[in-house]
Amino acid sequence: MWGQILNSLRILLCVLVLTCLSAAQEAVPLIRNTSVIVFRGATVYPISGPAIEHGVVVVNGAKIAAVGPEGKTPIPPNAKVIDVTGKIIMPGIVDSHSHIGIGSLPSVQANADVNEGSGPLQPQLRAMDAIYPADPRIRMATAGGVTTANIMPGSGNVIGGQTAYVKLRGTTIEDMLIPGALGGLKMANGENPKHYGARGQAPMTRMEEAALARREYIKAEEYKAKWDDYNKKVAAGDKDSKAPERDLAMEPLVQVLEGKRIVQHHTHRADDIMTVVRLADEFHFRVVIHHGTEAYKVADELAKRHIPVTLTVVDSPGGKLEAINMNLEEAAILDKAGVKIAINTDDDINSSRFLLREAALAVRGGLSRETAMKALTINGAEILDLQNRVGTLDPGKDADLIVLSGDPFSVYTKVLQTWIEGQKVYDHSIPADARYFSGGFQFGDRYPALPASAAVGEGAQ
Amino acid sequence: MKTLRLALILAALVTSSFAQKYAIVADKLYTEAGNHPAGTPGMVLIDNGKITEIRSGPAPAGYTIVRARIVTPGLIDTKTTAGISGAYNIPADQDQDESTDPNTADVRAFDSFNPNEKLLSYVNTFGVTTVQTAPGIINPVAGQAAIFKTDGPLSPNMTADDLSVRPVSAMVFNLGESPKLTYGREHKAPMTRMAVAALIRKALFDAQVYNHKWDDWNKSEKKDLSKQPAHDTKLDALASVIRGEVPAIFNAYRQDDIDTAIRIAQEFKLKFMLSSATEGYMMADKIKASGAPVLVGPTLQRLESLETDNASLEDAAILANAGIPVGLMTGFEGYVPKNRVLLFEAGVAAANGLGWDRTLRSVTIDAAKILGIADRVGSLEPNKDADVALFDGDPFEYTSHVLAVFVNGKETYQREQSAP
Fold first, then answer.
1. Which of A438, A445, A447 to substitute to test the interface with B, most B CBs within 10 Å?
2. Does residue B17 register a pLDDT over 50?
3. pLDDT surpassing 70 at residue B8
4. Most buried of A415, B17, B101, B234 (most Cβ within 10 A)?
5. A256-271 pLDDT per residue, tens
6. Confidence of residue A17 (pLDDT cuts 50, 70, 90)
7. Of A146, A97, A179, A171, nearest to A419 (Cα)?
8. How many independent structural domains does chain B possess?
9. What is the CATH classification number for the domain harbouring B322?
10. B83 Ramachandran zone, left/alpha/beta (phi>0; psi -120 to 50)
11. Which of B351, B371, B391 is the last residue of a domain?
12. CA B233 to CA A88: how far, in whole Å?
């Protein structure tokens, strides 16, 4: 009897404080903010301009209404004011290359939906059809300050499929998808797609990888020409003209040829990067180099074509031959050459909890702090065509922001709050949320809490 | 800065020619030996590969002066596959897992160790001067680990013997997923955790019997050669573990696997430590009661298996808070990045409850004590090996730089010379 009552009490408590096991493993439901929220006291990094000491950020509904210094930025009388004195505010981080949700935790075959290894050309596949909004890795990403992600199929195929540009909240993929954003097209070359060779299938060589891509784009050009012709006739009033047959694999490629969908291309080695450049030159498509381990060797070629690179900054070289020349100076060299760079996680290559850390390692390698901040925000937004919605703190943009405890590039800094379109999706002061940063969230209330620790940096003792 | 650069270049120029006398001058010196107020200005004198004096004030004549903001002992990675699991990650350079037999007690990491491995040199540039290189994670009885110094970009062409600290430092046992998944795939034992444990117990039991037989033989007064036990290299290796001469390392991730490790170690009264211990933080009291130190990590690892799903950045802190001796390790990585960097792992630990002081100890003197090599490394004091790491800021900050690294009194890395 008492046991039953205690159990009921426990369940009630769980429901109330949302710290019970089941609650801790759900997606954060989308709640559309309708109020006015003001953050005051923090140093604000709008990215579009210099840092603002004692800054004020006014959020109205899902959008940013105003950003400016205290005293010069009117605070609406009905606003809910959040005092974040002494903290840092920056835009929510844009991760331009991620596999969260599509390869969910736990990492077992049953959850492996990243690579459709049944054939090297899969343009008709859509990442959105495999994304699991309750994947804990999505919550872990918000614990790292990520608010927008490009969730992609893997690099096992020459054409991997259509990527999804999402916000990291909501219980359905429809909640997550950014309205009006088509997403990119994932492509890959180099070592990974050659895995078909082990089965005696194409591609076995880099030559065939390139040939596969060229064949497909030439087909797409023909397909596009037929549809263009048909559409022209219809527009001219021809009612007898018969529509060409729809081809779901060709449609995303046509969007690429029309510049509406950006090719997000996995590639490491300098010669593989130049193969991508050749394809882009031949078919005039917009492309972003992903990983780009040796992009620094062909920085000028990329700079003169305005091809951006989104780097995955890893701990050490190797793991595969094409990543053997990894070094922490890559970002700095590319930046100096005039190449636009972003920094991504390729989660689970790197954990989304540590995307800030990747940028810090690039700073260690000589990248300016200013560019590193852009590489986490606006540059990522630009390579996803999302610069009008996210990536800076400017009036009219989505109210995606993070509150940090200190210097964005310090190991000791924690993401305290993560906000997406005016909705708080992560709060470090709630233990169940904080476990998505530290790990161990599956243990729920049984997780042994650490006593709160003071400043821990060198010389703090 | 210019003078520093000049000093460093001068230092490097003479390093190669003869054993150098160095005075390493720090704004903040951390000796981890209690012989100098931590974090205050100080100087480490090095002569002929050894530390000769910790002092303050001006450097004596005849020493090459190298300056840095922060100076610490060289870092110790308590368990890694660096040196036997190469950066290319192709069969040609993967020598960590002899997965042809679940009991490979007689294989030695020493015999796979490639001193010219890129990853060793790489971690050296991040201040890591000592590594315990251990066989991989597949075999329940995986073989013998060894402890080495690392060589760096400025100290090529070393041999395993040049770098050796302990040719046999531990016997490695693996529990959990890797053994059963690898052998189970071929329908061979072990397919289950039960068989993993049974296999380890059988090996240790056989070694116990073998040890008794040899004891009896050695004690027997008249040596009847026809009754002399036959030598067995695996049992020889395991008997040294039974006798407590070689410590056992049990690698386990999940709580129940850690529990199994403790159960087996206690059954055979082994001198042992735990490694990885991903869910160790959930059972700190039990680990504390077992007396086993823990080689924690890596916390930056990919969560690529069920048993690492609950990895916590606070693992080291919670274990240390319980009074358990804690070292940090980088372990094994099977893809990109091929290796973790101890310095980065330490940063994560420092920022997630372990704190700065304890973290530095966990990668220097505490690690040395756990591995039984504190007579040579782990702190800066006279007569110890001159293994020193020089930083331009808080070592654990991602944005700081390692300025130079010394191993056995030789400069193995210098930032100004090595930048591309």
1. A438
2. no
3. no
4. A415
5. 999 999 999 999 999 9
6. very low
7. A146
8. 2
9. 3.20.20.140
10. left
11. B371
12. 61
Same domain membership, residue B390 and residue B247: no
The strand pair at B326-328 and B294-296 is best described as parallel
Burial of B233 (0-12, 13-18, 19+ CB in 10 A): exposed
pLDDT in tens, A105-120: 999 999 999 999 999 9
Q: How far is A121 from chain B (nearest CA, A)?
A: 24
Instruction: Find chain A residues with C-beta within 8 A of B395's C-beta.
Output: 458
Same structural domain for residues B92 and B138? yes
| Cβ-based neighbours of A383, under 8 Å, separated by 6 or more | A96, A262, A288, A308, A310, A340, A342
On chain A, the residues whose CB falls within 8 A of the CB of B347 are: 411
Q: What is the pTM of this model?
A: 0.94
Q: Are B384 and B365 in a shared domain?
A: no
Measure B46 CA to nearest chain A CA, in Å.
25
Closest CA of chain B from A287, distance in Å: 24
pLDDT at A451: 79
From the list A106, A321, A327, the residue facing B420 with the nearest CB is A327
Tokens 């990248």 identify what position? A367
Chain A, 421 to 450: residues with Cβ < 8 Å from chain B are 437-440, 442-443, 446-448, 450
Q: CB within 8 A of A86, min separation 6: which ones?
A: A41, A42
Indicate the SS3 state at residue A401: strand
Closest to B392 in 3D by CA, of B32, B67, B57: B67
Domains and CATH numbers, chain A: 19-92+396-444 (2.30.40.10), 93-383 (3.20.20.140)
Amino acid identity for residue B393 in this structure: G
Which residue range is the domain that position B400 belongs to?
2-73+380-418
B306 vs A contacts (CB less than 8 Å): 106-108
B107 and B201, same structural domain? yes
Interface of A with B in 103-122 (CB under 8 A): 105-108
Q: What percent of chain B has pLDDT over 90?
A: 91
Residues of A in contact with B401 (CB under 8 A): 364
What distance in Å separates the CA atoms of residue A355 and residue A378, rounded to the nearest whole number? 15
Q: CA Rg, chain A, in Å?
A: 23
Band of residue A402 on the pLDDT scale cut at 50, 70, 90: very high
Would you tell me the crossing angle of helices A206-235 and A270-283 to the nearest 10 degrees?
Answer: 20
Does B334 have pLDDT greater than 70?
yes
Question: What are the chain A neighbours of B313 within 8 Å (beta carbons)?
Answer: 437-439
The H-or-E segment that residue B29 falls in is strand B22-29
Residue A308's identity, in one-letter code, is P
Amino acid sitting at position A108:
V
Answer positive or negative: Cα dihedral of A355, A290, A95, A346. Answer: negative
Q: Nearest CA of chain A to the CA of B28: how many Å?
A: 9
State the smallest CA–CA distance between residue B67 and chain A in angstroms: 18
Window 298-357 of A, Cβ < 8 Å to B: 314-321, 323-324, 326-327, 329, 348-349, 351, 354, 357
How large is the average pLDDT for residues A205-218? Answer: 98
Token look-up 């995606």 returns A400
Of residues B419 and A336, more confidence is placed in A336
Give the pLDDT confidence score for residue B157 in this predicted structure: 87
B39 with A458: Cβ contact below 8 A: yes
Strands B294-296 and B272-276: parallel
Cβ–Cβ gap A319/B338 under 8 Å: yes
How many helices and strands, by DSSP H and E, does chain B display? Answer: 13, 15
Q: Please answer yes or no on whether B336 and A319 come within 8 Å at the CB atom.
A: yes
What is residue A16's predicted lDDT score, i.e. its pLDDT?
47
Structure tokens of B214?
Answer: 């040899």
Nearest to B336 among A314, A446, A451 (CB): A314
B274 and B210 in one domain? Answer: yes
